[in-house]
TrEMBL record:
Annotated sn-glycerol 3-phosphate binding sites: 12, 82-83, 133, 242
InterPro entries, per the entry: ATPase_NBD, Carb_kinase_FGGY, Carb_kinase_FGGY_CS, FGGY_C, FGGY_N, Glycerol_kin
UniProt KW keywords: ATP-binding, Glycerol metabolism, Kinase, Nucleotide-binding, Transferase
GO CC annotations on file: cytosol
Annotated protein name in UniProt: Glycerol kinase
Domain Carbohydrate kinase FGGY C-terminal: residue ranges: 259-445
CDD domains recorded: FGGY_EcGK_like
Superkingdom as given in the UniProt entry: Bacteria
Binding-site residues, glycerol: 82-83, 133, 242-243
Length: 495
């Protein structure tokens, strides 16, 4: 009997392979970084060959560290950085250009223009704001700038894929050109209502349909790997975008269930079930992972989350490690009226002010570094709470629990304050690698390695939960202070 499921977690700065057992426990983890390529300010690229080779390096390491033979692995699930675009030659397999990474701003001006003329149409079809972030304009850029690329694409010689698609194509020796609904929903070319590539958008972005992968449920048959790569031939049974992978890893599979990832920025997703909710608050509508027809989620992000802690450490040098922020925040009863709005790069949902910048207000003679550090941690929770409130207004229900992961979710002060400000329970699962876990669950459910969701729920025992303890009056007072601080930071508070 096979003992493990392998999750390949292809992220923005590193590739990892994590092996999970039947109880959903992590057995081993291999990791390999790769080059970040910055050809010009604001441009970000990865070499697709690096993505593949680092992934295979992490594979070998995970098997070695776990003392696992490839024959003991049942199936592979892939989770990946979303939106990043790769275009390659169908016959030689050679990429015609580096992967253009989601962070890359090279097509920002064109997208701002399109937002004005076609923003509504694009939102209605894709659930997305027209932005350089998504794949469509990146593909168009490659076709416009690489000599002969457009003609070759139109002749059916070039293929496009997000990173999942590229890895699957490589692993299967070029036999499978496919992606899943969650990744397709981030390309800005996929109609999330009809669940098809959208011909009008393909025309608008001038992307030939013949380059596009077929789209499958996240848990599905994605072919088998070549033994040259994985030791023996193994089935690939899942592909999923990282954030939707995490949502599934948290088992947020019903409407109203939500997760937040506290990384450099914060990524919130709330499952809205079979309903594609139109946001009145600037949130995105996106597809969720499943073994059949996908459901929908609302997505919102906070640009500066854990990064505010990095800033305190690296730029201000008021703390020597991220962990120290927890001790300092706990060392004072409150911030003494200090509020920190870390709008270093503007503010996203629900404010959408790209021009505003950071502010610290309410400073008195008695303010010290503990108050500033505490205010910085509190700002992460306030921003997350603002996005959660938008989601609650959009779906007209209130969340009872927020599932959390990511580096800064290790901070107990932050988690308690988050529960207090939300007035909801905040739970961090025992397995912190929820993105990889989601890919493993999807692959394992597809292959039959895991029986059903009930079994996975039993596996999920051991979460650390924080219950709200703050009085309603204090919560209201704190939120008033935050609102007032926001008003000072925003470029045009009357908006
Ligand atoms: P990413 O995937 O975006 O690189 P991670 O999930 O690895 O992010 O989390 C890293 C971020 O979390 C950093 O911004 C760091 O400052 C923050 N962080 C890590 N540990 C803590 C902690 N104990 N308290 C607060 N922030 C933390």
């Amino acid at each position: 009997m096979k003992k493990y499921i392998a999750a390949m977690d292809q992220g923005t700065t590193s590739s990892r392979t994590i092996l999970f057992d039947r109880r959903g426990r992590m057995v081993s983890c291999g990791q390999a970084g790769f080059r970040q390529i910055y050809p010009q300010p604001g441009w970000v690229e990865h070499d697709p060959e690096d993505l593949f080779s680092s992934q295979m390096k992490s594979w070998e390491e995970a098997l070695r560290l776990g003392g696992v033979r490839p024959e003991e692995i049942e199936a592979i699930g892939i989770a990946n950085q979303r939106e990043t675009a790769v275009v390659w030659d169908k016959f030689t397999g050679k990429p015609v250009y580096n992967a253009i990474v989601w962070q890359c701003r090279r097509t920002a001006a064109q997208c701002e223009q399109l937002q004005k003329t076609h923003g509504r149409q694009i939102y209605e079809r894709t659930g997305l704001r027209t932005d350089a972030y998504f794949s469509a304009s990146k593909i168009a850029w490659i076709l416009d700038h690489v000599p002969f690329a457009r003609t070759r694409a139109e002749n059916g010689e070039l293929l496009f894929g997000t990173v999942d698609t590229y890895l699957i194509w490589r692993l299967t020796g070029g036999r499978v050109h496919a992606t899943d609904y969650t990744n397709a929903s981030r390309t800005m070319l996929f109609n999330v209502h009809t669940l098809c590539w959208d011909d009008d958008l393909l025309r608008l972005f001038r992307v030939p349909r013949c380059m596009l992968p077929k789209v499958l449920p996240s848990g599905s048959d994605y072919g088998v790997t070549l033994p040259a790569f994985t030791g023996v031939s193994l089935p690939v049974c899942a592909a999923v975008g990282d954030q939707q992978g995490a949502l599934f890893g948290h088992l947020c599979v019903r409407a109203g269930e939500a997760k937040n990832t506290y990384g450099t920025g914060c990524f919130l997703l709330m499952n809205t079930g079979s309903e594609a909710v139109e946001s009145k608050n600037g949130l995105l509508t996106t597809l969720t992972a499943s073994l059949t027809k996908p459901g929908y989620a609302l997505e919102g992000s906070v640009f500066i989350g854990g990064a505010v802690v990095q800033w305190l450490r690296d730029e201000m040098k008021v703390i020597s490690s991220a962990q120290e922020s927890e001790t300092l925040a706990f060392s004072v009863p409150d911030t003494g009226g200090v509020y920190f709005v870390p709008a270093f790069v503007g503010l996203g949902a629900p404010h959408w002010d790209s021009g505003c910048r950071g502010t610290i207000c309410g400073i008195t003679r008695g303010t010290g570094r503990a108050q500033i550090v505490r205010a910085a941690l509190e700002s992460i929770a306030y921003q997350v709470s603002d996005v959660v409130r938008c989601m609650e207004r959009d779906v007209r229900l209130s969340i009872e629990k927020l599932s959390v992961d990511g580096g800064a979710s290790a901070n107990r002060f932050l988690m308690q304050f988050q529960a207090d400000i939300l007035g909801a329970e905040v739970c961090r699962p025992a397995v912190s690698e929820t993105t990889a876990l989601g890919a493993a669950y999807l692959a394992g459910l597809t292959s039959g390695f895991y029986r059903d969701l009930e079994q996975l729920k039993e596996n999920a025992a051991g979460a650390e939960c924080y219950r709200p303890e703050m009085s309603d009056a204090l919560r209201a007072e704190n939120l008033r202070g935050w609102e007032s601080a926001l008003g000072r930071a925003l470029f045009s508070p009357e908006k």
